[in-house]
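Task card 7
Instruction: Convert sequence to structure tokens.
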Amino acid sequence: MFENLKTGKINQKVDKMKKLIEYFVRNKLIVNIFIITIFAGGLISSSNLQRETLPKVDFNIVLITTVYPGAAPADVELNVSKKIEEEIKEIEGIDRYLSTSADNISTVVVWIDIDEDDPDQVKEDIRKAVDKAENEFPEKVEKPEIEEIKSANVPVIRFLFSSNTIPEKELRRLARNLEEEIEDLDEVARVDKLGYRDPEIQVNGDLIRMKAKDISLQDLSNSIRNYNIRSGGGTLESHLSEKNIVTITEFTNIQEVKDVIIRSNFEGMTVRIKDVANVISGFEDRTIYARGNQKNGIILSVLKKEEKDIIRTVDKVKKIVEAFKKKIPKKYQNQLTIVGVNDITKRTRSLLSISRNNALIGFVLVFITLLIFLDFKTAFWTAFGIPIALMMVFVAMSFLGFSINNISLFGLITVL
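Output:
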């Protein structure tokens, strides 16, 4: 009895399928319109789908980096890392955190609980906690940098500026000019520089001259610190306007440093920094070395916006770089090398090419195999199901908000 009932249901399904097939056989126009619509929609969707190396993944990890110039690891831990830990430990939704204190820098990594329903709120709470901890930092501590670890934070391409003959000042200027042009692109989120040393003015005290003038190193340090100031002085309000008061006496050139007065008296006698020290203009010590073809240089790392297409972004950046090469002063053109490295679109382009080739080869092989046993028309339309299936996938990906990336392409290649 049960077997008869099961057989009856199967027969009903078969009858429905036969009726559906007979309907499409009688109405060829509907079938043709459907195929054309799917094929056209697939072509349009495939050209508009966002291409990227990896799918969008938020690892729910927050990195807090704080610079404390001139501080030993113990001081960094006591005055920075511990302060941050005390504020974030009360936040709900945090799985764990790990702090590392080294010379001049504190790094705190925070993992958000994978079961947290609202990780964005946890991240906002972490930002507020860091702002609160910042109020307790020593004056020398720089503002903490908070970064979310995401797959989109990977540079899409890097460019190496290298030269052994161009002065570092000029190399920095050229790299900064290209950085500004690249960042003007709508697809680019930011450009990070590696091996790019900030300018630095070194004041080397001459102990003999300092002793003769009765000047200590502390006097020398205080005179520089008291002159190089940028400080807010509050707000001046009136019925017509509101103005912020800012005190600025920052150094703009080396001569201003030399002329700083360390000590003076009523007789008009003054002791300036240039009287007791050698002032040198240079650059900060290297922490990262960027080299290519045995030449020192600077690396520009380009990061795209999360919603932008990776291949279009890299192509536009490359055009900017090629145009920039033509604008380099003639005296530097033969001395400067600009090379694109770590272009992560190469793998994506390769997988896209493999997918297209597999679809074409699959269609041809299926068509030839069917042609041996069937007539030309039947073999062609049967094999044509491969590109139609591929187009339907692209349409579905477009509606579902998926992107073309290494993972989805690998799946397509496997199926094809």
